[in-house]
Amino acid sequence: GQQVMQIPQYQHVQEGEDFTTYCNSSTTLSNIQWYKQRPGGHPVFLIQLVKSGEVKKQKRLTFQFGEAKKNSSLHITATQTTDVGTYFCAGLAGYQKVTFGTGTKLQVIP
Amino acid sequence: DSGVTQTPKHLITATGQRVTLRCSPRSGDLSVYWYQQSLDQGLQFLIQYYNGEERAKGNILERFSAQQFPDLHSELNLSSLELGDSALYFCASSVDPTGTRANVLTFGAGSRLTVL
Q1: Size of interface A-B (CB pairs under 8 A)
Q2: d(C-alpha A74, C-alpha B101), whole Å
Q3: Is the separation of the CB atoms in B93 and B4 below 8 Å?
């Protein structure tokens, strides 16, 4: 079945440093989404990418969808303590079966 | 408040027992998804319903079952519980099953199940 892997699994950064998480799917995706789960919270939708090579920005966050639509990345510039949480990518392949990645847990050291 | 309501928030029970988790989707959402998240783990897809019918199935154990009712609320039934079933169970709903945001999920706060 479809697998979606994320690396790294954990990342500790000093506040102000940049952070990147990578998402790789075993199959071609129709679209990819990113969610953030704060500690003790539930996943919250951040963004959706649909087109091959698409790049979208949300303030300090930059999301990219690979040309082959099998990988994606999330880059955070100048991390802040409010960025702490687990970031999940989620891919749609096949009819409405959303598969979540393994997640990257981000810790920001003040 | 995401608009997706899950009850109960916390549940403690013993091995061998049966529990029912309930989810009310966001108003207007027709699809309901169930996910299991064990401690510090990822989100395991269990099952999806659309307008009362099963749409997709993931790694859902035979001891687990779910349904979506005519009013669109959904229930996840977990039976013959084992210690390993202790987890956070999330329900999510989606806004439009056919449009470009078909699978954008809105999650509830989750039901934390502890099996002793």
Answers
A1: 60
A2: 20
A3: yes
Cβ contact (<8 Å) for A96 and B106?
no
In whole angstroms, what is the distance from residue B77 CA to residue B37 CA? 16
Q: Is B1 helix (H, G, I), strand (E, B) or coil?
A: coil
Q: Are B26 and B109 in contact (CB under 8 A)?
A: no
Q: Specify burial of residue A24 (Cβ count, 10 A radius: 0-12, 13-18, 19+).
A: middle
What is the spatial distance between Cα B78 and Cα A25, in angstroms, rounded to a whole number? 30
Omega before B97 cis (within 30°)? no
Q: What is the residue-wise DSSP string for A54-87? A: -EEEETTEEEEE-TTSSEEEEEESS--GGG-EEE
Please indicate if any CB of chain A lies within 8 Å of the CB of B112.
no
**Distance separating alpha carbons of residues A48 and A35, to the nearest angstrom:** 9
- Is A96 within 8 Å of B31 when comparing Cβ atoms? yes
- Among left, alpha and beta (phi > 0; psi -120 to 50; other), residue A75 is beta
Q: Cα separations (Å) of B23 from A9, A86, B9, B49?
A: 30, 24, 11, 12
CA-based nearest residue to A37, from A2, A88, A3 = A88
For the segment B47-100, what is each residue's pLDDT rounded down to a tens digit? 999 999 998 888 899 999 999 999 999 999 999 999 999 999 999 999 765 556
pLDDT in tens, B60-75: 999 999 999 999 999 9
Closest CA to B105 of B97, B88, B93: B93
